[in-house]
Amino acid sequence: MEAEVNMRSNAMPREVGQRGTLWVVRKVLMYAVLIIGAIISLFPFYYMFMASTLTKSDVLAQPPKLLPQDKLFENIDRLMSDSSLKLAEGIWNSVIIAVLYMVLSVFIASLSGYAFAKYKWRGRDLIFGLFLATLMIPSQVTYVPLFKIIAGGNPFDLVWLGTIQAVILPGLASPFGIFLMRQSMGQFPDELMDAGRIDGAGEFGIFWRLVLPVMRPSLAALAVFMFMSQWNNFFWPLVAQVDTIPTRIGALSGASLIDYSGIMTVTSLSVLPIMVVFLLMQREFISGALAGSVKG
Amino acid sequence: MQNVSTRPKQGSGGWKGFRLSPKVAPYVFVAPALILFSIFMIYPIIYSFLLSLQKNVAGEQKWVGLDNYSRLLGDELFRKALFNTFIILIIQVPIQLSLAMLLAVGLNSKFLRMKSFFRAVYFLPAITSLAAASVIFRILFADPDGFVNSFVSVFGFGPIHWTLDETWNRVLLILAITWRWTGYNMVIYLSGLQGIPEDLYEAAAVDGASRSTRFFRITIPLMQPIILFTTILSTIGTLQIFDESYLLTNGGPQNATMTVGFYLYRTAFRQADFSYASTIAYGLLVIIAVLSFLQFRFTGGREEAS
User: Fold this and answer.
1) Considering only A245-259, B61-75, B169-183, which range has the smallest mean pLDDT?
2) B112 and A34 in contact by Cβ < 8 A?
3) Which among A154, A245, A268, A279 is least surrounded, fewest beta carbons within 10 Å?
4) Which residues of B touch A118 (CB under 8 A)?
């Protein structure tokens, strides 16, 4: 730390005189702002986990309780045994939907990203432009027709209300993912593809066995992003009438007899897995989210 | 090399038997995305527009031209929803982006320890589902016994009627959105800041530029494309708010926090007025397009950096 400070002061001779008290004040101030920010960021999570260990009535007790108690398993039992809440079903659906969506959407996005990045073909730029253009269209525009598609009574006549595919399929070909994959596939060297062809690999074989393994970091980033977007999705499962954890949270919080610690227990259940994955794969998470800033 | 002639025979079992030529391969690869995309994106976009030109009269769809659009222009509830959204836009987006910039500049400081800890902590709200964030905030800000009211009463305030008072209801929504998105924007800014070469600052410091001069003359201009990007992203996001309006405030007292997204949901899925809901969606599309265009224009629209 000392050495670093000295280096800075050499580089900025005019500030040497101020380095004393002013510099300390500035540093303290900066830490204060960052720490207050961190407390504000974390407190709602603390409160959520804490409240999931209280009894129903203790959540809004006066004075407020801020230390965890031992009612967590009681809360879980109560929620799981109340079959009208369909909590187990919600958890199961959430897991299946998020995992299936993640695998399929990453596969589809990487396939077409590869086609856009590594082949020259007629209509390529036109179709890519089409994908890009829809990125700017608010998703609300498609909601009503999508509902009609999955509810039946349309030319395709799928009757999918309440089914898992009704949640997965509409967003499966994600323009965002395709764009992202095109970006990273572009960096794969053409020479390696040619070498693969000379060795007798088919086009799909080249993609599957040469390209994908190299692309693992971007695939992982896209995968966590896709998983998260489905895991957190509330609107579409609500409309498609599929019970997932977010829609169960919604139903529970809309109930007339409000079970505050129950709501916080379910919410903790929905936040915890994402949090754990986030702590394990921070880099992928952040680069997946940041990838959005590349699309502009 | 000699293998070239023998390989195709060997690969004749199973799916390996399907040899794609490099000419056909891209079409096959793009097909799944294109098929899904046509059914679930392009067709709905067109269908939605057609619906907005129709009306359901006694169970039958009738063409009514722009009738729905003139209804939209005169619709007080739509106007109120739009007004609410714009209030959030004008107040929340600048607050959130300035806070994000402040935190990013702080985190970018050379002397700071535990950078990755802070970055992770600030980013955490962004990975939380809106549904979860909304109900947490609803309980934290419960009226009158929630934690926040107990907290402010320590300083002699309150209780604040977060759910009953129109203004406080909007404040609540703004706080919840700020909590969720500030860290996300901060991470975007941070990655932008890390791309600014250090010698620029050092040269400016040698020339006697103060800290704030360096910030406004170097950081802000160089970050302009990224700031524009986050502004457009936040604007689009704000205009589409649904989860918070539905789960946190349930539209608010006298529809104070009814958003366009919630109004659309109500029209389509509670009142089953699909045509008018489509009109609302297209109204939203036009507004988003105009705003994005204006923001792009006013900030000079430089594309390169991002």
Assistant:
1) A245-259
2) yes
3) A279
4) 26
Q: Which residues contact B111 (CB under 8 A, 6 or more apart)?
A: A1, A4, A5, A27
Q: How far from each other are the two terminal CA atoms of chain B, in whole angstroms?
A: 44
Q: Identify all chain B residues contacting A271, using CB atoms and an 8 Å cutoff.
A: 128-129, 132
A127 and A198 Cβ atoms separated by less than 8 Å: no
- Residues found in chain A: 296
Q: What are phi and psi of A209, to 5 degrees?
A: -100, -20
pLDDT higher than threshold 80 for residue B17: no
Asked if B32 contacts A173 with a C-beta cutoff of 8 angstroms, the reply is yes
Interatomic CA distance for residues B260 and B262, integer angstroms: 5
Q: Find where tokens 């619906």 sit.
A: B51
For B60, the enclosing helix (H) or strand (E) is: strand B60-63
Q: Smallest Cβ distance to A119: which of B25, B122, B232? A: B25
CA neighbours within 13 Å on the CB side: how many for A138?
31
Helix axis angle, A260-280 to A72-81, nearest 10°? 110
Predicted confidence at residue A10, as pLDDT, reads 46
Question: A157 — phi, psi (to 5°)?
Answer: 50, 55
Whether residue B12 has pLDDT greater than 70: no
Please report the number of interchain residue pairs, chain A to chain B, with beta-carbon separation below 8 angstroms: 308
- Whole-model pTM: value is 0.87
> DSSP letter at A148?
H
Q: Please give the ipTM for the structure prediction.
A: 0.86
Do B205 and A14 contact (CB within 8 A), yes or no?
A: yes
B21 three-state secondary structure: coil
d(CA A124, CA A136): 19
B151-197 tens-digit pLDDT: 888 888 878 899 899 999 999 999 999 999 999 999 999 989 988 88
Residue A126 pLDDT greater than 90, yes or no: yes
What pairing do the DSSP bridges indicate for beta strands B54-57 and B60-63?
antiparallel
Are the C-beta atoms of residues B131 and A250 closer than 8 Å to each other?
A: yes
Q: How far apart are CA B185 and CA B182, in angstroms?
A: 5
